[in-house]
Structures are given as structure tokens and as C-alpha cells.
């Protein structure tokens, strides 16, 4: 977080008036930088001003009054002449004068930007269920800690699928190459009006990306159902491992559609 201070400082506009509310040395009021970060600690000692000095310490009778006993201080004195002083209390603006700060604007200013992925609208959409969409998002990034991945990190655990099919548990197998989870997804699709054979994960993902476009009710509820199916299959997997509790596919289907009904109400 501390490393982001400079990036955020570039979006702040300091309107200096009486100077009492701004740190002379540490606030980035001087062309987007603090005096210390631009000129170093030596200028503080040369100025004989204290560490807790405010900008008001170098303002006299409404004008700049910097000490000029070294070339660095002379340079600072020259730079600040372009900064107009006003009457009243100092104001810090976001991006431009008069614009209010918001967390969204700050995030947009500092976040890394990448091209939009083709599955973005499949995962995040209006009235989605956040925890379900997050589970789907993890799957798109191959980020679930499946047993094959745990073994690669030297965790002593069986790599076999918890649904008893005998195959190695991988992301591709769990969603929905496994007979158990594949049957749950097939039943879920059928209730959404799609009767089709469940394909390997990559093919199934491409089908969903291409087919589940638009904003009609059938598309929306199928996207809700996809995320809910992944979430409840993952939760059932965890329940079997950590609590030794088992549900059949019919019970999982009931959980999925109970969630969807509650969302539709």
C-alpha cells in the first residue's frame, strides 16, 4: 500500500491557502511530489525548520518566504512562485479542482489494465450471486486448490476424486469431467432448457461463452445456474473431505435450484 502513495499523489491537486493543514516536507504539494522525495533530507537541515513544520512556515503576509541559503532552497523558492496562494483553509482536490474523491476513482487510477477476457460477461453480470461468480472466476483462472495441485506442493493427500469415480482430481475433471458433477451439470442444463451432452471443460467453456450471450431471462438464469452448480459441487467436495458428510446429486440439485428460486424472488 505504501508503494502506491506516489501513484495516488499524481492524482491529487493541492490548493494552498494559509498552509496550516499541509506538511511542508512530506505532503506531495510541490508539483505532485513532497519536498523530501524531490530534494532529499538535507534541505530540511539547511532550512533550520522543524520536521513537523507546515507549509505556513514558508508563507509570510500572503506570499512565499523560503530561506535561500543553499542552491536547493533557492530552486524550491523559484518553483513555488508559480503556485498561487489564497485566503482560508487549504483544500486537497482529486484529479482536478472541484472533483470529489471516490474509492472507485482511486482504484481506476492505480489498477493495472489488461484486455477484457472473453469470459468476463459469463462470470460478472447484473444480479449475479457474488460468491458463486467468484467460484466461477477461480475456475477460469485454474485457481481452485484441487488435489493434484496440492500434491505438486508436497501436501500428503490422495489425488483421487472425492466423488468416487477413481480419476485424479483436477480442475478439468472436477468441472465437469467427473461422472457425478457432470450429471449434476447436465441436469441443471436440462432444467434451463438446454438438452445436450456435457463436453470436456474447455469445450464446455467455449459453448457457454458463445451461447450464453444477451440479456433475456433464459440466458441470465443459465449463467446463474452455471455459477451455482460450480459453487455447490465445490462445497460438496469440501464437505466430503473436511466433514465426512455426503449428499447425492438429487440433494445438490435441490440446493442449486433453491438458491436460484431465492434469487428470482
Structure notes:
The chain is mainly α. It folds into 2 domains: about 1-110, no CATH class; about 120-265, no CATH class. The protein is about 50% helix and about 5% strand. The protein has 13 helices and 4 strands. It has a two-stranded antiparallel ribbon. Strands 2-3 form a two-stranded antiparallel sheet. Strand 2 and strand 3 (about 65) form a beta hairpin. Helix 7 packs across helix 12 (about 215-240), helix 9 (about 170-175) packs across helix 10 and helix 10 (about 180-190) packs antiparallel against helix 12 (about 215-240). The longest helix has 26 residues, at about 215-240. The chain is elongated, with a radius of gyration of 30 Å. It starts with a helix and ends with a helix. The model has no long low-confidence stretch (mean pLDDT about 90). This is Zf-RVT domain-containing protein. InterPro entries: RVT-Znf (IPR026960).
Number of strands: 4
Structural domains: how many? 2
Q: What spatial form do the alpha-carbon principal axes imply? A: elongated
Structural class: mainly alpha
Would you list the SSEs in sequence order as H and E? HEHHEEHEHHHHHHHHH
Main sheet properties:
2 strands, antiparallel
Distance between the termini: 41 Å
Our estimate of the beta-strand percent is under 5%
Please name the defining characteristics of this protein.
single chain, 265 residues, mainly alpha, 2 domains, two-stranded antiparallel sheet, two-stranded antiparallel ribbon, 13 helices, 4 strands, 5% strand, RVT-Znf, Zf-RVT domain-containing protein
Question: How do the strands and helices of this protein lay out in sequence?
Answer:
Layout lengths: L4 H5 L2 E4 L19 H5 L2 H6 L11 E2 L2 E2 L6 H10 L10 E4 L8 H8 L9 H4 L6 H11 L6 H6 L18 H7 L1 H13 L9 H11 L5 H26 L6 H16 L1
Antiparallel strand pairs: 1-4, 2-3
Amino acid at each position: 500500500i505504501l508503494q502506491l502513495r506516489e501513484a495516488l499523489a499524481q492524482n491529487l491537486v493541492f490548493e494552498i491557502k494559509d498552509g496550516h493543514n499541509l506538511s511542508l516536507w512530506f505532503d506531495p504539494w510541490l508539483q505532485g511530489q513532497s519536498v523530501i522525495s524531490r530534494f532529499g533530507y538535507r534541505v530540511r537541515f539547511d532550512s533550520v525548520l522543524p520536521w513537523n513544520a507546515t507549509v505556513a512556515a514558508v508563507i509570510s503576509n500572503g506570499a512565499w518566504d523560503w530561506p535561500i541559503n543553499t542552491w536547493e532552497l533557492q530552486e524550491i523558492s523559484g518553483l513555488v512562485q508559480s503556485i498561487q496562494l489564497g485566503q482560508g483553509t487549504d483544500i486537497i482536490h482529486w484529479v482536478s479542482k472541484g472533483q470529489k474523491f471516490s474509492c472507485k476513482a482511486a482504484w481506476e487510477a492505480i489498477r493495472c489494465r489488461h484486455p477484457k477476457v472473453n469470459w468476463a460477461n459469463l462470470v460478472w453480470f447484473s444480479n449475479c450471486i457474488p460468491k458463486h461468480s467468484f467460484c466461477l472466476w477461480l475456475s477460469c483462472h485454474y485457481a481452485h486448490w484441487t488435489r493434484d495441485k496440492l500434491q505438486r506442493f508436497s501436501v500428503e493427500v490422495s489425488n483421487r476424486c472425492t466423488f468416487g469415480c477413481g480419476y485424479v482430481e483436477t480442475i478439468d475433471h472436477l468441472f465437469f469431467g467427473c461422472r457425478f458433477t457432470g450429471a449434476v451439470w447436465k441436469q441443471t442444463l436440462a432444467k434451463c432448457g438446454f438438452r445436450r451432452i456435457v463436453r470436456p471443460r474447455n469445450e464446455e467453456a467455449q459453448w457457454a461463452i458463445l451461447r450464453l450471450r444477451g440479456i433475456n431471462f433464459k440466458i441470465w438464469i443459465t449463467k446463474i445456474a452455471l455459477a451455482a452448480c460450480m459453487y455447490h459441487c465445490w462445497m460438496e467436495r469440501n464437505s466430503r473431505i473436511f466433514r465426512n458428510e455426503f449428499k447425492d446429486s438429487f440433494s445438490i440439485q435441490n440446493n442449486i435450484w433453491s438458491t436460484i428460486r431465492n434469487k428470482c424472488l
